[in-house]
Amino acid sequence: LPPPPGGAPPSLFSSILNMANTIMGTGLLALPRCISLAGLVPGLLLIVLSALINVGTNVFLSDAAAVGGHPASFNKLAVAAGGPALALVTDAAVVANALGAGITYAIVAADGLTLGMPLLLGAASPGHQAWVLVVAAIITPLSLLRSLDALRLTSLLAVLILGGISGLVLLYALPASGPAADLDPCPADRTASPVSCPPGEVRLFTSPAGVLAALPTLVMAYGCQMSTPTLWNEMERPTRPRMLALYASALGTAMLLYLLVGGLGYATFGDAVAGNILKSYPATLAVGAARLGLALVVIFSFPIQALALRQSAASIASELRACGGAGRRRAPARAVRQSPLPEPAPAAPEGLFELSPHLATPTAGFVLVATALAAAGVQIGIVVDVAGSLGASTVSIISPAIIYARTFPHDRFVPLAHCAVALGLLVMVTGLAGVLSPTQ
User: Fold this and answer.
1) In whole angstroms, what is the distance from residue 12 CA to residue 359 CA?
2) What is the pLDDT of residues 322-338, one digit of tens each?
3) Nearest to 367 by CA among 51, 109, 89
4) How confident is the model over 289-329, as pLDDT tens digits?
5) What does DSSP assign to residue 198?
6) Rounded distance between C-alpha atoms, residue 11 and residue 402, angstroms
7) Alpha-carbon distance 249 to 269, whole Å?
8) Residue 281 CB: number of other CB atoms within 10 A?
């Protein structure tokens, strides 16, 4: 997408906020449970290594985008590197990943408002269906915004809320005699969580099988690659040093919060920690505010998923139309590494909202499906998880590595790209095994 109409390109700080918001979400709250599977030491090490891996795969994409020029997209990069087949697989993975995340976000937002508002208001609030309508009313116009930069203020608010939730986890982990004397994670009254109180054992190490079980969630916790081409398009002077600064800042911020929440959350409750760390804490006003904050975070993250989905859905539709017609022209020849500045972006379309039928239609369908499932309370968890395992590993690791290796076949980092493909396949297989396991 080009820069916002009538204005300057987004600043580096604005891009960092949007990428950080893309990365962090409900996955932050699942990290303590993942660490309980791997053990404290391997879990924390995987959080750091996963950040480095995802910096690398993001670099793969922006380096390839610098060769292809404006406007960059997953479809364009995949066609240039591997032809229509790779493009279709990649776009389908983006759609699957965004659809799974969006449905989860709509459900979490409606549940968070339903449970959090009564604690804050001290009285009964409208039912679940009413809050689904509120969620739909907010995410619909946000999802139709034309550019990621238009979401910079909501991204800032989302990052601040996640920082506040991380601070709450820190306060509950402090000794009872310290500044958080009134924040007992397992109080002796009825507010204590029956899931996590009394706390379980804290283990430094578990087993290789436990590490393997935690691997998919920890590696995919930094997934943001579906937005990388859009950020590259919108950023002012997207040179390699500036893109590296973007990745290091956004993923570094996420890594610090992941280490804080994952490590301290697990240290507080041990193996009794819940899959969502907020469910381990007592039913207090502060925790109710955190649940409400989480609802706002996923509401602000939903439009980022919508933007990625509509681009890939439009690409798939175009590809299918081309296959049904005279056929698609041959993919461009592989490029060699180049280092000049990317060519300027084309003139931006007018208007704040994206109302083109080929993009607005999949956006509206996405919002409708996600909110309808949230309202109906349909249990489709395994479908969402399977889509996430297939889509996230493809979009975040496998496709960027293939695109880089095919774009720069003689580059010295190609062996690392091959290793990334192998890792992505391992993450996909172990993720699917965990989802489809009878014990899940």
Assistant:
1) 27
2) 776 645 454 454 444 44
3) 109
4) 898 899 999 999 999 999 999 999 999 998 888 776 645 45
5) S
6) 30
7) 30
8) 28
